[in-house]
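[job 4471] stage=fold_predict status=RUNNING
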Amino acid sequence: MKPREDRVPVHHDDSWGPLPPRPAFSLLIRFVLTVLLLPLWWALLVVLFLCFIAFALVAEIFTIIPGFEKGFLSLIDKFGDNVAVWPAWCVTLPELRHEGDAAFYRARVDQRIASWTSKELAAQKAKKAPPPGPHDIPVRAYRGVGAGYVVEAARAQGWELSHDHPSDPLHMVRLRRLPVAA
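[job 4471] inference complete, writing structure tokens
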């Protein structure tokens, strides 16, 4: 079958294609562990957040030290960037039920991009600043269709890969909205 000439492949790397389905037994084990451990994970995150708040109240005294406040805020930012609310080891019930179902993952990607697009267009219509980015789509949302499909679907709605923060197709696709001509 000859590829359509108006559809240029995004990348020639296999990592941009659909990921192979995971074994059902492995998914079931990960789902059970998710049900058991995810509430503990969330409780740990809440406790750590409360510890940061408590330390921040006490550390207000140390703000007289030059650079202390900037360093503390940098630590909180790094913590927030590196800690996931939904860790990579989680398997949700929809993922368990629809593993390997390309239509399910296609709908997930399309819904997420359409949601971002509608928010961007509403902000543009109201002459307000668009919602802040980055707009990341984790692999759990596109594993059945691949990162290449995410890029194609995003381009159709005026998005492109982010140049500020590179994407890793095996973990996350980062998108940015194309500038709108005034």
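[job 4471] summary: The helical segments are 24-59, 68-82, 93-97, 102-125, 139-142, 147-156.
[job 4471] exit 0
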